[in-house]
Amino acid sequence: MADRPGKTGKSTAPDMRGEHGAMRLPGLDIDHYNLLVRDPEGQEDFLGDRASQGAFRDLLQAARQRHRTGKDPFGDVPTADLKKKAIDRVLRRSDPDAAHLVHLAVEDHARRLAHVIQVFLAQPEWEGVERIVLGGGFPEHDAGGLAVRRAMRLLELAKVEARLQLLGHHADEGGLLGWTALLPQSEHRHRAFLAVDVGGTNIRCGIVEHRLEQAPDGHKARVLERLKWRHADHGPDRAEAVARLAAMLNGLAAQARTLDLPLAPFVGIACPGRIEADGGISQGAQNLPGNWERPFHLAEALAAHLDPIAGTPPRVVLHNDAVVQGLSERRKMRKARRWAALTIGTGLGNASYSNR
Known about the structure:
This protein is an alpha/beta fold and 356 residues long.
């Protein structure tokens, strides 16, 4: 039912920081990510898609269609075009009939998410997982957060032993901060570095101050500046998306020079899909603008547009977005032998880890 763990990740080398798709870090193994479980009911290609942010909107649309006898609180706006704030406003209203529509979708999504987590925990790749961190953009708004907390309660009632917790950072920063754990030792002498989180809806870039001299586990890292582009609103092709990303990074590098901030010639890019040792994306990038999978090579394409940093062409390294977001919570997972991360956004990202 599921993909086997990538053999490229299990290396006898004690430290793979700075390598594409690194699977072995000091004190930590990234055991697996991008776990794909086929949907046995055939509703989606993969089971995880039944608990994505898009799945919630499908459930909300179904609730709107079932209750057409009353006044629709969203008017004539298609469900796919609803803003998160608009959904949350209806949820907070005193009108129980209007809020009931959102609650129906919340409950259905919570049950789906709880089911997906139980199925994942039954897979060999997640065997022995004790704790799970939930991130992504979906839990950041009221309806999503409510669905996630309800799923947590359903798992408690089902006596699932793995403990769940929400990402401690804002979703816009978790996929940037996690790169601190992947920053190669040779770049620690620089105060900060550039990081990117590419999703199916947004591209986020930031200057990350790692502060590893204060906390070697990276928990004191912080995002000094960040930019966000909602590419889904513009529908760019791949070349346009890469050019816009390069412009954002070059702008942040220029800002670092203005602030006299020592920046490492390193760019970490978190994106969906399976990242191979050569930096190619072999699967799972279907939600990105254009076809980003092999033979296209994002690291090379982007590097061609980047300005030198302190006279050195920056090194561009890729890893899976769920892996990176999970690493931002590594400190909180230090007492678990095995733990995992789920990111609920355009898709459902996942990763599992072992502490050594």
